[in-house]
Amino acid sequence: MAHCPFDFFTDGKNHNICLVGGGGKTTVMYELAAAWAACGRRVLVLTSTHILCPADGSFAGDVPAVQNLWQQGRYAVIGTPEFATGKLTLPPQSVYEALKLQADVILCEADGSRHHPCKVPAEYEPVILPDSDIVLAVAGMDALGNSLQQACQRPQLAAELLCCSAEKIIDAQMLASLLLSEQGTRKSVVVRAYYIVLNKCDLIKAAQQEEMLRLLVGEGIDERRIWLRERGDSKC
Which of 59, 52, 47 is nearest to 18 (CA)? Predict the structure, then answer.
């Protein structure tokens, strides 16, 4: 079992966490949900954009169904089904308002990246819940060594932000800049606590991991708010 380094995981407080960025948001979200549920916490999972409706029985169509899953020691996923796509969108506001008062932890996927390791948000992205207190940014380390065109969602916006061509090969400095920019992954964070998951770290060398840490910490990110996560990490 992998260790989640973030203080919010074990502080015993209620949290409303929005996940943004690229590669691995959904995986990280469900791992956190399962780990918290295993600790006896009432965990609510949703999206403010789109996610696939889970096939494991964790989707709950109403408040009693959510409560039933919590009584079983499971997390509950809520949302409005889109039957044509098999996806969920934002749940009805009345359902969310009722459940957020009962949940210990809320996890919301607030951004989409179409499986790209990194992204720059469009004007209407991300869709962060107004009452969230934490933003968890995810970036895949498999972006390194590939061009913005190949590895970044909205590569032209990224090229404009970084003042380069969309064919530019992504290095650690570029990826750190995307994570740190308020036009990039840090958009709309404002006063919320900001944490970073560097995903698929087993795909890069230790020196590259150290460089990413140096760049992020050098710009004021607390090292304790950076998770060097490997693909084999199955739980927090």
Answer: 47
CB 194 within 8 A of CB 222: no
Q: How far apart are CA 81 and CA 123, in angstroms?
A: 25
23/169 Cα distance (integer angstroms): 17
**pLDDT grade for 235, boundaries at 50, 70 and 90:** very low
**DSSP letters spanning 14-80:** -EEEEEEESTTHHHHHHHHHHHHHHTT--EEEEESS-EEPPSSS-B-SSHHHHHHHHHTT--EE--E
Query: Residue 44 to residues 81, 111, 162, 236: CA-CA distances in angstroms?
Result: 16, 17, 36, 17
Please give the residue that has the higher pLDDT: either 72 or 3. Answer: 72
Cβ neighbours of residue 210 closer than 8 Å, sequence gap 6 or more: none
Half-sphere exposure of 162 (CA within 13 A, CB side): 29
Partnered with residue 169 across adjacent β-strands are 147
CA distances from 147 to 151, 160, 165, 195 (A): 6, 14, 9, 25
> Of 143, 119, 133, 129, whose CA–CA distance to 195 is shortest?
133
Is this model's pTM higher than 0.90 or not? yes
The tokens describing 206, both together, are 């230790």
pLDDT digits (tens, 9 = 90+) for 143-194: 999 999 999 999 999 999 999 999 999 999 999 999 999 999 999 999 999 9
Instruction: Give me the residue label for tokens 């840490």.
Output: 213
